[in-house]
Specification:
Elements: H1 2-26, H2 28-35, H3 39-55, H4 57-67, H5 69-89, H6 93-121, H7 127-138, H8 140-156, H9 158-179, H10 195-207, H11 209-240, H12 245-272, H13 277-297, H14 304-315, H15 317-331, H16 337-365, H17 371-377, H18 381-417
Helix pairs in contact: 1-5, 1-6, 1-8, 1-9, 1-11, 3-6, 3-16, 4-5, 4-6, 4-10, 4-16, 5-6, 5-9, 6-7, 6-16, 7-12, 7-15, 8-9, 8-12, 11-12, 11-13, 11-15, 11-16, 11-18, 12-14, 12-15, 13-14, 13-15, 13-18, 15-16, 16-17
Keywords: Cell membrane, Membrane, Transmembrane, Transmembrane helix
Membrane topology: Multi-pass membrane protein
Pfam family, one: MFS_1
Length: 423
């Protein structure tokens, strides 16, 4: 029971992090009015946040391997609450952008720290499923931003909405300090590692094919739904596709529900068929590209059923990206798992920030928010899908070859240690 309490408290911190991450996505039009921002400037809010998030992944992983989950979860929550509070009261564009960067930094500490709790508190057979549950249940934060946060924003305005989010962050800090422990025996890390050894491990971790396979897995599966939820989904659905703000919010809620259902299935499949994980990932990436191709090929707004199908299919990419962390866990020892997880997490968010910024530039040059401008802007996704597929195929081959060599070496070593009478 204690393991579930620790995990649930960490999960709450991650839910709050996703809420903080996605608030600007549903308040983008209000932010444009409040700060008098063009589409490209507005995208800078989220892009800088994601740049900080992605850039902090490896340092966060190193800190996690050294200090453990509890410290980083509480510290991340404090940074995010501070950033949201500043954003609530400021009307200065530079200050607001800096506040979003602080939110991104706090967000960077949270997810991989919660994931680090899972192998310490649960049996190995449960780890893939609980890992999936962490990722998909965390997306409830997106529901909180799309429904109650958006309702408070609409009814009471910008400042009360963002102050309420900051208050939830403070609650998360208190619960983390009271309830979370890094391991059942309280240790922060599995072994005492010097700072020099920790820094030297970065190159070693990246050179493991399984780490890079996780990186490209995360990149190819996650970025499309992240861009949709964080920045351009609501403007696209309301302006280009003609949905009401309420309808757009329901689409984001559908995205979360889909991710939860798909995550349970993916968690079970990856646990039972670990050697088929990369095939599952490639299927998700290709299905994302195909559904966007169908929608973008239409010369006019898509019918509602097709938009629903689009949201459902791209939302599977969220739990699909969690397979990348499973690759990291499989091919890395526990002492460097935080660093490996940080590297994997960079994949999708690096791709997301590049696509978000590129879309903002395309929208500016295409004349602003319109059906044709969005239709053109979404095509920048195809370059990322192509890169991710190539990366998955190459690193999968290298990881499989390394695994075979290790298995052959173990068999040979076992043969050599056998008494001669047993050979």
């Amino acid at each position: 029971m204690r393991s579930w309490i620790v995990w649930a408290t960490g999960l709450l911190a991650y839910i709050v992090a996703v809420l903080d991450r996605t608030t600007l996505g549903v308040s983008g039009l209000q932010a444009a009015d409040r700060f008098d921002a063009s589409p490209s400037v507005l995208s800078t809010f989220v892009v800088l946040q994601v740049i900080v998030y992605a850039g902090a992944q490896v340092p966060a992983g190193l800190l996690l391997d050294r200090f453990g989950s509890r410290t980083l979860i509480a510290g991340g929550a404090a940074l995010m609450a501070t950033g949201q509070l500043v954003l609530a009261v400021t009307e200065s564009l530079p200050v607001a952008i800096a506040a979003r960067a602080v939110v991104g930094l706090g967000d960077a500490f949270t997810f991989i720290s919660v994931l680090r709790l899972v192998p310490h508190w649960f049996a190995p057979r449960r780890v893939p499923l609980v890992t999936q549950l962490t990722g998909i249940c965390g997306q409830l934060g997106q529901v909180l931003s799309a429904v109650p946060f958006f309702a408070v924003l609409t009814a009471f305005g910008w400042t009360p909405a963002y102050i309420s989010v900051a208050a939830i962050g403070v609650l998360s800090i208190v619960l983390t300090v009271l309830l979370v422990r890094n391991t059942p025996d309280g240790r922060a890390t599995e072994s005492a590692v010097s700072l020099r050894e920790t820094l030297a491990s970065v190159k070693t971790v990246w050179l493991r094919p399984g780490t890079r396979l996780g990186f490209f897995t995360h990149m190819g599966t996650q970025f499309s739904v992240t861009v949709f939820a964080l920045m351009w989904g609501v403007p696209y659905l309301t302006v280009a596709q003609g949905l009401s703000p309420t309808g757009a919010g329901m689409m984001l809620t559908l995205s979360v529900v889909t991710a939860i259902a798909a995550g349970v299935v993916i968690g079970i499949l990856t646990g039972r068929f670990p050697h088929r994980r990369s095939r599952l990932v490639l299927t998700i990436v290709i299905s994302n590209a195909l559904i966007w191709s169908v929608v973008l090929a239409l010369p006019s707004p898509a019918p509602l059923w097709l938009l629903v199908l689009l949201v459902v299919i791209i939302s599977v990419g969220g739990p699909g990206s969690m397979v990348g962390f499973d690759f990291a866990r499989t091919f890395n020892p526990g002492a460097t798992l935080g660093t490996a997880s940080g590297m994997v997490n960079m994949g999708g968010f690096t791709a997301s920030l590049l696509v978000m910024q590129a879309m903002g530039v395309v929208l500016d040059h295409a004349g602003g928010y319109s059906f044709d401008a969005f239709r053109l802007a979404w095509t920048v996704q195809y370059a990322v899908w192509a890169l991710a597929v190539v990366g998955i195929l190459i690193t999968r081959h290298k990881a499989r070859r390394l695994m075979r060599l290790e298995q052959e070496s173990m068999l040979l070593e076992g043969f050599r240690t056998q008494p001669e009478t047993q050979r």
